[in-house]
Every structure is written in structure tokens, then in C-alpha cells.
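Annotated sample (chain length 518).
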Amino acid sequence: MIRAPEPNEAALPREDGLLETGGAWTRVLAVASGKGGVGKTSVAVNLAFSLGGLGKRVCLLDADLGLSNVDVLLGINPVVTLEQVLFEGVPMERAILSVGRNVDVVSGSSGVSRMAELSRNKRTDLVREFHKLINYDYLLVDNSPGISAQVVSMCLACGDVLVIVNPEPSSITDAYALIKVFKENGLHRPPLLVINRSLSHQRSQAVFERIQKTAENHLGVNCRLAGIIPDDPALYRAATRQTPLVEMESASPAAKAFRDLARRLDAAGRDSANLTRPEHFFDQTVIRLQQAPILPPGLAGSGRPPVSGELARRLEALMRRLAANSRLLAQTDPEAARDTEARIEDVRELLDSLAAGPQAATDAGSLAEENAPDRTDTPAPAPAPSLSQPDQKAMVICPDPMWRAILENILEDLGLELCPLSDEAAAIQPPDLLLVRQAPSAGLADLLAAKGDRPTLYLAANHDQAARFAALPAKEPREILTMPVELLDIQGAVCNLLATAASRRRETPHLAQHDHRP
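Output written by the structure step:
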């Protein structure tokens, strides 16, 4: 992995006049996610230990905004953090903590977001400090969840970016939004996608293909699938015991998947195009921060505000106490221990969602509500069959352009022709199906009425929206899916609706009179 510099490479001039130290090269990988709660830090930690198991020297840099999830997952209490290196003149070597064979950690803090404030002289000093990381084969940068100036700057300064995504549509759209912002700020290498908490290989492959198709069609970005990590109960046990899964239960399905991911990444990253210098990564991060990355409306400046240090410390302390209690309970009450493990995961998702901002916190609240013990689950639709009538039409009612693009791609894959909302012909020949992702309102009810009584699939953000959709008058069959759902569930619901409508027409001939097609 480490190669000697090319002739005269160590003395390359720099346009900004800062020191270029030269020396060995490292593969710098960013780990990011469009939202919190997708298991980003768990992937980063287990990937670091898997690479270490291959004999690679790895430094895991915790660049989260003061939430130190790496510390919690590994059960460590660092004395020196990256903030002290950046702003207090502490040498980098004092912040490096050995956590396993070939694996070291540099703990982060909220100070990471203030790198844009560094003076020119201070940057020069810190270039020398980051140069001390040149002996590592890998520098893994665990970013904050969501989209911020810090995340964008750090990710684009790395050689490669791993985007962690779950099969849930909300995670998919957030991952797409993150990739879009990367593209708008100069992304030049294909993002590498890791599908985490996968329930089936087939569904995860469909998730990747959906993101890839949308990114290629709308952004001109070609994504690559780096790996699929199965949803494995052993992950939660390892988190409770504050031990990497690949070390604690090496034979578990997820541990095997992490090792496969490490081998693929290592095999694909041996060319010099994937390598950089740690000091170059740091310098480019600062430059990008000072140039102010282009962010979506509402995220200008430094991005979402970080969680206060006091709140982060209290939540981290709670997670440590829960972990200790679970270890004690495991000896006497395994069921209570499993429940405690679930609560630890709830707290971890809360930490991530708080770091990602108010909207993510709302999403996490909805998710917690939907997973409450007393909820009534709606059986997931069966996998989508092939459509027998390729001339059928569908209309998507959705104000969010990213969601609309994904939903339209699903319908096109099923052979349905899309009707735009402005299509005047729809008044004469109503679509065969409506797919609605929009908050219930009087305007929506009027719009649905104008499009005729068609089979309708509603995607509700929460149980309250689902109840309001259920209250809308409807003659034709309908289905209501409450988030989070998977893409194949949406496909299955569409096919079920069309099949039910066709069956009703066959069984009740007079219903065909409502079909305005010639």
C-alpha cells in the first residue's frame, strides 16, 4: 500500500504556498451517510478492524460533531482529542490511541467544524502534524451524519467516499441528496455505496440499482456497490459489549460481510489514483471549508448546529451505563438484556439524528413511534410480479423531486407509462394507478377527485397521515404504506392494486363502464 514518491514528487510546488512534505502515501476513505441511524459508525469501526486483520495499518479518525460514537462503540475514554491537536498545539501522536491489532483511533470533537477558522500559519503547523500519519495504509474518516459544510469538505478531500445507506426509502433519498451535493461541489470519483442492515441480497441489489439509475439519469454520476452488510443480531450484541463485531463474533454473517468489504476495497485501491497524503487531506479539507461548499437551501454556512457537548456527554454516559447493565443482565435475565440492547440502539440513533439536525430528529421520532411495542404491523406486500398489461399508465403525486424521481423509476421498471400532472389527456383517459406521497389536504382531495376513482397507493410519513389517507373517500382499491418501507414493498403494492382492480372488473362487468379508454 505504501509506495515511494516519484522523482521530485516530495518537492512539488503548491499554489497556496503551504508546506508540501512529501513522503509515503495513504488511502484516505471517508465514511458518510445522508441521515443518522443507518449504522455508519458501526461500519467504520468494523471495516477498520477488518482491514487491520488483513495486516493493514489503520487510523480511524472520528470526525463526528462531538458525538464520539467511535469511543462508545469501542468502550474507550480518550484523554486527548483532535480538537486539542487543532487548537491547543498538542502533538498528533498524543491523540493516537491503539485499540486493536493494527488499528488506532484519533477521537474527534466539535472543534472539527471550526477548521475554517485556522490561520495560514496554523495550517502550516498542522500540515506537519497530519504528516505524522503517513505510516498508515488507511486513514478512515468517520463523518457526521447528514449534509453539512464539514461533511462535504472532508469527503471531497478524501480519495474515496463510502456512502452508507439502509433499504428504507427515506435513507435512499437522503443518500441521493448527499451524492447530489457532492456532485455540485466537484465530486470526480464514483461514490462507493454500502447497503447496511440488509434483509435480503435481492432487495439490497435493487436498492443500489435504484440509487445508481437515479444518480446516473439526473446527476451523471456512476455509483459503485462496495458491499452489502446483512441485518445481524450479533451487531447489537457487539455494540452492547463495546467490542467490534469482527472481533467478538467473527463467524457471524455480518462479520463475514465486513471482511469481504475490506478485501474488495483493498484489492480495488492499490493504484496510485486512490492514494493521497494525510496532510494533503487535511489541507484540502480546510481549503474547501474556507471556500464555503454549495449546500441545499437552509444549510448554508457551517451546516446544522452540532449537539452541545454537555448533551453529548450525558447521552454517551447513558449508553455506557446501559451497556454495563446489559452485560450483568445477560447472566441472569437474557430477555431483559436483549431489551436493553435495543434501547442502546435507540439512544445511538438519537445521537446520530440530533447531529443531523431537526428534520432527522423528526424522522427518528417517527421511526421510534412506528417501532413501539404496541403498534399493529401491516404485512408487507409480496415481491412484485411482472405486469401483464404494459400499456397501463400511472401518475405520481409528490412535491419532492428526489422522491418523485425514485417513484417514477419504480413504475417505469414495472412497465407503466407515466402521466405528468399537467397532462390534459388524463382528464379524458385517467391513469390506471395513482401513487401519492404528499401530506393529506383539501387540495390533494380535490386533485384526486379530478383524476377519477383509480387504484391508489399512499405513502404515509407516519400513522397520523395514514389515518387521514384512510378517511379519504375511495371506490377503487387502495393501499397505504407507512414509512419506513422498502422499495420492493412499493413495487409489490403497485402490482397488487392493479391485479385487484383487474379482478374486480372481471367479476363485476359494469365497473368497466368507468374505464374511459377506447
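Annotation: The longest strand covers residues 27-33.
Annotation: The first helix runs from residue 40 to 53.
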